[in-house]
């Protein structure tokens, strides 16, 4: 993460699972909110998680010699030198077929000021439920 810019450092949550991700995006996000976490199943990969109610869409980002690639059958393969470049590319894309729009980063530094106890225990309750959906 040392080569990454401020955006990635602010939205990178590390080794949180998909259930905790759902709760965070449900409680603190809205449609288009997104965060980055470690993949639970592919070592070295990251997951770009985006809320588009009632789902949390997860896109796997795979490291390669050229940088990072978004692994999704509906999105053309393209390599980016950094995660930040990849994210900014898809944020700026008008519409990628089947991809949830990335409109607002879920900045963990802002969450710390919000309700640290709730974020750490993930005991959040909301009237709107989100479901995990691996892409």
Number of domains: 1
Distance between the termini: 24 Å
Radius of gyration: 14 Å
Largest sheet: 7 strands, mixed
Structure summary, number of beta strands: 7
CATH topology: SHC Adaptor Protein
SS-based class? alpha/beta
Mean pLDDT: 82
Helix count from the secondary structure assignment: 4
CATH-assigned homologous superfamily: SH2 domain
Low-confidence residue ranges: 116-135
Shape, please?
globular
Which percent range fits the helix content? 25-40%
Q: Could you say what the CATH architecture is?
A: 2-Layer Sandwich
How large is the share of residues in beta strands?
Answer: 25-35%
CATH class: Alpha Beta
Order of helices and strands: HHEEEEEHEHE
Protein name: SH2 domain-containing protein 1A
GO biological process, one term: regulation of immune response
Organism: Liparis tanakae
Keywords: Adaptive immunity, Immunity, Innate immunity, SH2 domain
């Amino acid at each position: 993460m040392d080569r990454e810019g401020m955006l990635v450092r602010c939205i990178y949550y590390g080794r949180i699972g998909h259930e905790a991700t759902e709760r965070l995006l449900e409680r603190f996000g809205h449609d288009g909110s997104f965060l980055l976490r470690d993949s639970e199943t592919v070592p070295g990969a990251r997951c770009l998680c985006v809320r588009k109610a009632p789902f949390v869409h997860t896109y796997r980002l795979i490291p390669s010699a050229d940088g990072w690639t978004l692994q999704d059958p509906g999105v053309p393969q393209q390599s980016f030198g950094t995660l930040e470049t990849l994210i900014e590319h898809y944020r700026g894309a008008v519409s990628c077929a089947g991809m949830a729009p990335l409109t607002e980063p879920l900045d963990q530094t802002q969450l710390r000021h919000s309700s640290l106890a709730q974020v750490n225990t993930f005991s959040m309750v909301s009237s709107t439920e989100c479901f995990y959906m691996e892409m």
